[in-house]
User: Which sequence fits this backbone?
């Protein structure tokens, strides 16, 4: 029979059990033994679910307490020396400090995992980085799975991708020439130790094959895999998120036992590999989408795979397109979804069942799975024609946009003068990114309101109390452009999606964003529009509490679709522009209400980019147009901000400039302000606020650290265009540390303002 396998499964638990256990451990409310018990139960349940669906090879190494890239760094001994930890005796507490920082060391940097909203820990590469094998934790999980009677296939990020993912912390030359010769024997030793535990198959993920990494990287593959093939394990190379047809000759020639390809993201590559990949090797095909929530068209998939099976026989393997880490865990626990819409969906557990049906059909024919195929066909037909999806008014509005509809009335030089006339901001103006601490009281009030246990009036009073406190704190801190703190918002995407037509929501559709941080993405199932104002009420109340210019907060169109599970029956450009016009209605209503500083966040602008550079320009054209459409018609005196974080922007700066936001704020503290250098070299034309401290760590930075970063920024950006702000929103922080952090930021800002004023 054809092997059904997968490389990863959701690891936080069906109801976020791991998140709560990890956070309890951080607080000292759970012991390490108790945390390990929760982790073991999640693994046991996941493996049992996969086995019950018919999976033949179950993943090991996909579970992590924080991040799988960090886990591999620990396994190859490549943790930063600055922490002073011994890789051979790394404790769980020290492991978490690598990701979260401690009293003396800032956390390791995070950035987006390719084009997903998952954040990985970025390796820190130095010329003297050393490697050593530490397989104990992985071997423990291998033994655990085998003891439960499972056939397994460990999954690891490949050595070349690992090096590519990291950052050079100083200029020391090529990572391939400097670090690969040291990493490769250690990686090979790791595989030998797994082979000694009886591991037969191992999946080594090399997603850099799906990006334009360059010849130096692809040329290194033969030598690397010649070394790894002699380790006693059979290797399947995993690729995903884009096609790898251009590497068909390379992949065919490598001395490995197979390759996995993502045919959801690049369906045409299926024919290339079916015709040209050696049938003596395993060809694993991913036609079930591991990153979205829609049911697969089982009849189409089976018909597509049948001729491939005739050539490859049992060397045809089936799998999700990528790890199911990016999918919610189980649709069965959803009790409040519209039944019609729910019938179009499949979460991780249901995708396993779909793969089991495909495996059965390939082995015994379509007649053996007739009922499943009938249900799949009916769901596909209903979704294609259902009137809940289509809104003629939305389509007409988009189609009737005049030429130049996405342009502001005047250029930036004119707008900034009009804004400064009424705002009268000091040099180095200060603000925050938008959210303030989401306290237990806020979450309890929101939950009680949603359950009907708290009246609308009482909820309104509770949120206004939180907003008033937030504004009061900012007044005391003397922040120049305050925010209302977003107490009423559960999530920067979900909050808006709940008020937009064309969206629906789950109760338990959580996916991991980073560490213990989970998000519950909305689902865009149809045409999007805004029935009513979404933020005007709360922002207007906050403005009534201060004479300072209150900043309204919106989430941009690209982020709104990227951080949602998006419909796949129309182009993404159409979805983005529909959302942009809905947001534009909100911008103009805020402006009418007297909120004339409006932030339209686009942290996902980079992560939504195609992995292939040849597709960048097309994407950036419509993505930046969508952003501009969201503020079209705003007066020159209305200041439009945007925020971006945890991504690389160096190679798309012209596009970012074309968005024409009056002020952009970016995350820069974990990179020691290095990300800002490109903005300076590019001579970014508008105002910019680089983050001066890391909000993802609970530590309060010393004033000297903030001053160091701010002075670096002043050397790059003209001070008349420089803002001062934290890296990102403060939602995940506590009030005590938040106030202390902002006090230090304001103290440093005032000191430098005084210097600048004296120098005039």
Assistant:
């Amino acid at each position: 029979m054809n092997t059904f396998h997968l490389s990863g499964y959701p690891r936080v638990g069906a109801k976020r059990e791991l998140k709560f256990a990890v956070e309890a451990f951080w607080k000292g409310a759970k012991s390490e033994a108790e945390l390990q018990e929760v982790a073991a139960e999640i693994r046991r349940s996941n493996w049992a679910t996969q086995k019950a669906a018919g999976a033949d090879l179950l993943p090991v190494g996909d579970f992590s307490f924080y991040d799988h890239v960090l886990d591999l760094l620990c396994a190859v001994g490549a943790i930063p020396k600055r922490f002073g930890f011994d890789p051979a005796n790394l404790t769980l507490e020290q492991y978490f400090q690598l990701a979260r920082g401690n009293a003396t060391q800032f956390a390791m940097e995070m950035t987006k995992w390719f084009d997903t909203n998952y954040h990985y820990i970025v390796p820190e590469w130095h010329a003297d980085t050393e490697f050593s094998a530490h397989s104990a934790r992985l071997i423990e999980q291998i033994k655990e799975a085998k003891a439960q009677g499972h056939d397994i296939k460990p999954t690891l990020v490949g050595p070349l991708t690992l090096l590519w993912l990291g950052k050079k912390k100083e200029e020391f030359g090529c990572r391939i020439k400097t670090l690969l010769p040291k990493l490769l024997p250690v990686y090979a030793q790791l595989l030998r130790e797994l082979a000694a535990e009886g591991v037969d198959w191992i999946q080594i993920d090399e997603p850099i094959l799906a990006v334009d990494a360059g010849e130096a990287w692809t040329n290194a593959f033969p030598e690397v895999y010649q070394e790894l093939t002699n380790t006693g394990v059979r290797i399947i190379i995993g690729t995903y998120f884009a096609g790898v047809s251009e590497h068909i000759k390379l992949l065919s020639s490598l001395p490995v036992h197979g390759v996995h390809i993502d045919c959801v993201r690049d369906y045409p590559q299926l024919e290339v590999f079916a015709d040209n990949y050696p049938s003596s090797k395993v060809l694993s095909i991913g036609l079930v989408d591991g990153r979205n929530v829609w049911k697969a068209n089982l009849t189409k998939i089976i018909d597509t795979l049948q001729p491939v099976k005739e050539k490859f026989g049992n060397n045809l393997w089936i799998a999700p397109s990528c790890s199911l880490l990016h999918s919610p865990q189980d649709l069965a626990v959803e009790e409040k979804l519209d039944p019609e819409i729910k019938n179009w969906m499949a979460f991780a557990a249901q995708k396993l069942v779909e793969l089991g049906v495909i495996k059965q059909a390939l082995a015994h024919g379509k007649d053996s799975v007739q009922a499943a195929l009938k249900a799949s066909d009916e769901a596909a037909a209903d979704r294609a024609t259902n009137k809940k999806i289509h809104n003629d008014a939305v389509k007409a509005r988009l189609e009737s946009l005049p030429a130049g509809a996405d342009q502001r009335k005047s250029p930036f030089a004119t707008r900034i003068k009009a804004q400064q006339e009424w705002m009268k901001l000091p040099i180095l103006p200060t603000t925050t990114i938008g959210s303030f601490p989401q306290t237990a009281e806020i979450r309890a009030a929101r939950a009680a309101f949603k359950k009907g246990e708290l009246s609308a009036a009482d909820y309104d009073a509770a949120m206004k109390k939180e907003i008033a406190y937030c504004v009061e704190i900012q007044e005391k801190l003397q922040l120049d452009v305050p925010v209302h703190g977003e107490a009423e918002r559960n999530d920067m995407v979900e909050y808006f999606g709940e008020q937009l037509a064309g969206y629906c929501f789950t109760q338990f559709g959580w996916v991991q964003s980073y560490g213990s941080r989970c998000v519950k993405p909305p689902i865009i199932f149809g045409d999007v529009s805004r029935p009513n104002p979404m933020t005007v009420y709360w922002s207007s109340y906050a403005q009534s509490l201060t004479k300072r210019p209150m900043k309204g907060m919106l989430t941009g169109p690209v982020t709104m679709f990227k951080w949602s599970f998006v419909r796949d029956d129309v182009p993404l450009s159409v979805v983005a522009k529909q959302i942009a016009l809905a947001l534009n209605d909100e911008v103009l209503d805020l402006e009418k209400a007297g909120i004339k500083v409006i932030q339209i966040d686009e942290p996902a602008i980079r992560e939504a980019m195609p992995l292939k550079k040849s597709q960048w320009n097309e994407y950036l054209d419509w993505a930046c147009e969508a952003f501009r459409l969201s503020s079209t018609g705003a007066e020159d005196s209305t200041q439009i901000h945007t925020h971006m974080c945890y991504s690389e922007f160096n190679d798309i700066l012209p596009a970012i400039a074309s968005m024409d936001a009056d002020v952009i704020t970016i995350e820069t503290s974990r990179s020691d302000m290095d990300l800002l250098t490109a903005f300076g070299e590019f001579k970014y034309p508008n105002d910019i606020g680089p983050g001066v401290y890391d909000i993802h760590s609970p530590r309060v930075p010393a004033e000297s650290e903030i001053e160091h970063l701010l002075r670096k920024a002043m050397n790059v950006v003209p001070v008349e265009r420089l803002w001062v702000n934290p890296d990102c929103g403060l939602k995940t922080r506590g009030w005590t540390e938040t106030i202390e952090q902002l006090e230090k930021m304001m103290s440093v800002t005032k000191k430098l303002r005084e210097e600048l004023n004296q120098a005039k």
Q: What stands out?
A: The domain at 416-759 is CATH 3.20.20.210 (TIM Barrel). DSSP finds 29 helices and 20 strands in the chain.
